[in-house]
Amino acid sequence: MALQQTVKDKIVFSGIGLHSGKEVTMTVRPADAGTGVIFHRIDLDPSVSIEAVAQNVVNTRLSTTIGKSGAVVSTIEHLMAALTGCGIDNVHVDIDGPEVPIMDGSAAPFVEGLRKVGTSSLSRPKKYLVVKKPITVVDGDKKISIIPSRYYRVSFDMRFNHPVVNNQFRSMKFSEEVFSSDYAAARTFGFLIEVETLKANGLARGGSLDNAVVIGDDGILNEGGLRYEDEFVRHKIMDSVGDLSLAGYPLIGHVKAYKSGHDLNHKLVTEILARTDCWKLVEMNEVAGTRTACPVSSPELAWSEA
Question: Are 23 and 125 in contact (CB under 8 A)?
């Protein structure tokens, strides 16, 4: 039986916020079974605790922001993806500012740090949200759905009308190993003209070639180029893993996204939680050596895709 996990010891991450440009220090520390992920704005008096759940999402314009009692924490998706990618269910996150540090623009520094400190098994079984019936959200020409599957998969069809960024498609069958090796290091990206507009409006103040891939009219501006040929769609999948973790349980289902982003990801999570007839909570075993969730016994999934 798969047990809930937390970190073995606290670990500190420091860096600047992508949009605020301010230095932030964040400490991830162990939590009891059933806690989930809770951010604590320790720079406020009194401090404010914000659970990382869909109900607390207050903004999805440029990143995923959670808030409570007037306090917010933004750009949480990369850390949330890293926690999911390391199989961690329960942590406290002490943060002294309104935004998670952007680090290098990917989830890799968080994954590296979390793996270095290690995880501890807790006394309660891990429960997975197993999708039994398809759920779809459409917004104009954008679409995201989740259908029954025996595993957690994310397939992303990315479309941009730009000469440097071709349409990209990729599908991930989730496991901790695959996420860490093939997706965690994919960086956030933006078009030069959009970055300049954001900076002019007081946003992306911390953005630079050190923490984002910047796309000009004729090519990638970063000296080292891309980490993967299809780094953009890999990053979109990584973002989706982080956003969808706000369901509060690891998912078992195949997410199919077309031109989706933070807003549509959030709408899907909200729709999933509202459609209680379309899923059930199931305790899982782990496939030996892979840390890939697989149902113990779920008759509804007998005809689901592998």
Answer: no
**Hey, what amino acid is at 179?**
F
Beta partners for 95?
A: 26, 41
Q: Which of 19, 40, 235, 262 is catalytic?
A: 262
Q: Which of 263, 301, 305, 257 is nearest to 54 (CA)?
A: 263
Quick one: tokens of 77? 């998706």
Assess whether 262 carries a catalytic annotation.
yes
Radius of gyration (C-alpha) of the chain in whole angstroms: 19
Which residue's structure tokens are 């806690």?
35
pLDDT of residue 200: 74
Q: What pLDDT score was predicted for residue 18? A: 85
Binned average pLDDT, 10 residues per bin, the chain of 306 residues: 95 92 96 98 97 98 95 98 98 97 97 98 96 98 97 96 86 98 95 75 76 89 93 97 98 98 98 98 65 50 56
CA distance 127 to 119: 17
Show the domains of the chain with their CATH numbers: 3-125 (3.30.230.20), 127-301 (3.30.1700.10)
Q: Which amino acid is at 11?
A: I
Give me the residues paired with residue 257 across strands: 144, 156
What is the Cα–Cα distance from 252 to 243, expressed in whole angstroms? 15
CA-to-CA dists, residue 91 to 83, 107, 139, 239, 289, angstroms: 9, 17, 33, 20, 24
